[in-house]
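Entry for magnesium ion complex. Fields follow.
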Amino acid sequence: MTKKIVTLAGDGIGPEIMAAGLEVLAAVAPKINFDYQVEAKDFGGAAIDRQGHPLPEATLEAAQAADAILLAAIGGPQYNDAAVRPEQGLLALRKALGLFANIRPVQIFPALQHLSPLKSEIIAGVDFVVVRELTGGIYFGEHTLNARDARDINAYTYEEIDRIIRVAFELARDRGKKVTSVDKQNVLATSKLWRLVAEEVAKDYPDVILEHALVDSLAMKMITNPSDFDVIVTENLFGDILSDESSVLPGTLGVMPSASHADNGPSLYEPIHGSAPDIAGLGIANPISMILSVAMMLRESFGEIAGAQYIEHAVDKTLRDGVLTKDLGGQASLSEMTAAIIANL
Ligand code: IPM
Ligand code: MG
């Protein structure tokens, strides 16, 4: 059956890296007999410019009807003081599709190890996944802004915590069998509930070790002892912060893909980095996060393990061959790097 992939190229370097990701997909598809069609939709700032709204109705409807969604990047300085911001579209899309489970893998490419600001002995063997709750918590609680006071409500239900902790345990079961649940249990009520639920869920996974960590100390250990971790699970805001922090380990945001899953319905795949408006349109952006997001899509939405591995190995080989974009210390353009990856498939 033909798989329907909705693409949201968005803003800045989004359209360029999306094109690169789709070129790689087109190159790998015949090797694995993967039959698909692509439907491109307006999203983010581009949708604000064209349709006055970051998540137009037609975009949401197409996304809901898709088998998977690829998102490149959104945002730009021109929207900083705008009444509607591209980010609102992203949050609305996550909520509407129920994308509660955000998976952000952290791995080190040997060819890029020198880009990491950390000593090589510290990052040796780093291989963990941040599982971030994506549709609850302080992002989606009531926000009140007055001239002299403001508040943001952080709320979690038992069910919301339970389902994200289970995602973490299921992942850990297939990996290093360790879950680190991150909270601020010494202060926050939501965190006290979080820890209780994690303990309850752990009873169903006797083969997986559960450890708890306070977010402040975890932020430190992620840098001093990053190879201690296998699956890190946490609430929305902590996950936002920790996943950016984790990108310091590989030394670049440019190689980090992510997946967001719902209980039912399509998953969404996107780079962790933003829209890099300063280099948009110059043809020098690094397409690897986008290309690896395509690989994640093949594996996690379509069970195309071989296709995902072809892409991942081709990326690894390309980096080892020294074909590097500017952000990675090289001279290759976006199209040169994409062509090299396709040649290595
Ligand atoms: C992310 C981003 C978003 C978030 C922004 C763009 C709203 O930082 O996906 O991590 O905070 O979730
Ligand atoms: Mg973020």
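NOTE: The CA atoms of residues 13 and 282 lie 9 Å apart.
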